[in-house]
Amino acid sequence: MNYLSTRSLEPGTSRFGEVVLRGLAADGGLYLPVQWPRLGEAQVEGLRGKPYARVAAEVLSLFADDLHGSDIRAVTAEAYEGFGHPAVAPLVQTGPDDFLLELFHGPTLAFKDVAMQLLGPLFDRLLAERDRTMTVAAATSGDTGGAAIAALSGRERVRICVLHPHERISEVQRRFMTTTGAPGVENLAVQGTFDDCQGLVKDMFADEAFRTAVSLGAVNSINWARIVAQSVYYLTSSLALGQAGRPMSYCVPTGNFGDVFAGYVAKRMGAPIGRLIVATNDNDILDRALRTGRHEPRAVQATHSPSMDIQVSSNFERLLFEASGRDAELVTRLMTAQRAGEAFGLPESVRARISEEFSSYRAGSEEVADRMRRAFEETAMLIDPHTAVGLVAADKARAEGLEGPLVTLATAHPAKFPGAVEAATGRIPALPPHAEGLMAAEERFEVVPPRLEAVQRAVQRLAGA
After folding, report:
1. Residue 204 CA to chain centroid, in angstroms?
2. Is 102 found in the same domain as 154?
3. Is 333 in the same domain as 363?
4. Whole-angstrom distance, CA of residue 274 vs CA of residue 309
5. Do the domain assignments include residue 80?
6. Residues 251 and 395 in one domain
7. Which of 84, 139, 418, 441 makes an SS bond possible with 179, Cβ 3.0 to 4.6 Å?
8. Phi, psi for residue 392 in degrees, rounded to 5
9. Is-contact 305 253, C-beta < 8 A?
10. Considering the domain boundaries, does residue 181 fall inside one?
């Protein structure tokens, strides 16, 4: 399996392990396979009904032909043994042809666990093979940080520094990051937005001397292994529900575009997937871009779905690369404008290509609260505000004529957002038993300005550089 950068300014690599450990390509681009591997019809059918870890091993082996099969099976077995549901990502039926895909049964109650728990043992093996250590830097809009710390803390060869936007995430989200007490963990509360955090991490990767000195690695969804891992639950759920000639459509609450792009990856592999619906909250830059062709950033609005309070969706770059016929020059130009905070237009051919497979809808804050209330009244289910964004978009897709099975991704446990859930339903969701001591645990984090030198100093301390 060969890989290239979306900006194609550096030579490609044939080693999945190097792609995972580098995270971001040296030219600032994101890694993608040169050619998409494809599961044959018989292979797809052979995976129907198989345990989740087994399917994950089959998918990972398609992209990681430099890893031994026994290592891959060991990694996936370890990754998913601690989930709170035997199916890992179970489906719940909510209507005749409507389903929720529950992705919150991992240790930090969010969909990020599904990929991050895979990265932990994968890093262990890759770093041990190379006799290396790594300092991971991650930006989080709420859930990535806790999931990354749960997966990586306590591992001998990995240290981790997480940047989150100060006072812009829920208390439960923050506490999953700041109460671990484990060595080799640094939490930075950046006085800015998630986009500021993400920009600081990218700037550290762009500083080649710094990157080398601290052995910097990434676990954000820019890391290709995360996308591969997330593609698995599209495959398992589509096989669980699919029938011949009847593909599934998916509605995905979307911030950094990694989760919905994973659906695109699964489709390229041969999973029976129809439309992919991008669901945004009031920070609707992606909906506007897909509908009008103009990608125009605005000020970030704070909402009750903070993991989606984003104006710079990193993985959108991967879709632009694909939809433009892998035009690296165009992608580089558009991403340069994005990094400068400038608006840009999508070529009509690119927008038309995207619209063949993707739709998008915006869910306003009042619509989200009302959808949480209706879900409770109609089904007695408590849902978190991000899942509610997805359900609002799903309702709009149905109203516009979408037919057939539709799966909405339930991306977080409602107990991660108790204030929003209580305001909408009058009920306070309880934390699962394994997290009951979270709210009483001592926190540890440092508030820093959104300046590169301040963050680099903290990372250097952590790395001992």
Report:
1. 20
2. no
3. yes
4. 27
5. no
6. yes
7. 441
8. -60, -45
9. yes
10. yes
Nearest CA to 133 out of 156, 153, 114, 117 is that of 156
β-sheet bridge partners, residue 360 = 278
How many whole angstroms separate alpha carbon 181 and alpha carbon 150?
Answer: 11
Summarised one tens digit per residue, pLDDT across range 111-149 is: 999 999 999 999 999 999 999 999 999 999 888 899 999
CATH number of the domain bearing residue 209: 3.40.50.1100
Tokens of 260: 């919905």
pLDDT band at 419 (very low <50, low <70, confident <90, very high): very high
The number of angstroms, rounded, from the C-alpha of 61 to the middle of its chain's C-alpha atoms is: 21
Q: How far apart are CA 57 and CA 271, in angstroms?
A: 16
Cα angle: 215, vertex 217, 219; to 5 degrees: 165
How far apart CA 110 and CA 410 sit, in angstroms, is 9
What's the distance, CA 92 to chain centroid?
21
Report the distance separating Cα 264 and Cα 323, nearest Å: 11
159 beta partners: 135
Catalytic residue numbers read 112
> 442 in a domain, yes or no?
yes
Give the contacts of 254 (CB within 8 A, at least 6 positions apart). 260, 278, 279, 280, 286, 308, 313
The stretches of 183-339 forming alpha helices (DSSP H) are 194-206, 208-214, 224-241, 258-269, 285-292, 316-323, 328-339
For residues 112 and 119, give the distance between their C-alpha atoms in angstroms, rounded to a whole number: 11
Query: Does 234 lie in the same domain as 150?
Result: no
67 in a domain, yes or no? Answer: no
> Residue 44: pLDDT band by 50, 70, 90 thresholds?
confident
Residue-level pLDDT at 416: 94
Asked whether residue 351 falls in the same domain as residue 387, the answer is yes
Inter-residue contact 116 to 148 (CB < 8 Å): yes
Return the CA Rg of the chain: 20
Which residues, at least 6 apart from 67, have a Cβ–Cβ distance to it below 8 Å?
16, 17, 60, 61, 125
- If you search the block for the tokens 């240790």, which residue do you land on? 107
Give 317-331 pLDDT, tens digit per residue.
Answer: 999 999 999 999 999
Q: Which domain holds residue 101?
A: 91-110+224-425
Helix, coil or strand: residue 338: helix
341 and 299 inside one domain: yes
Adjacent-strand bridge partners of 139:
163
Tokens representing residue 305 in the block: 């779905």
216 and 97 co-located in one domain:
no
Crossing angle between the packed helical segments 348-355 and 285-292, to the nearest 10 degrees: 110
Three-class secondary structure assignment of 414-463 = HHHCHHHHHHHHCCCCCCCHHHCCHHHCCCCCEEECCCHHHHHHHHHHHH
